[in-house]
Amino acid sequence: MNEDKTKVKNTEHDISPNHKNGTDNFCSKCGARLVEEPNNHATYRTCQSCGHVRYQEAKVAVTTAIYSHDKLLLVKRRYPPEKDKWSLPGGYLNPHEDPALAAARETLEETGLIIDNCKLLDVLYNPEQGGADITIVYLGVSSGGQLKAGDDATAAYFFQIDELPELAFSSTRHIVETLQRSILENRQEPGFGGENCELQSK
Ligand SMILES: [Zn+2]
Question: I need a surface site. Which of 88, 157, 165, 176 has the fewest CB within 10 A?
Answer without folding.
Answer: 165
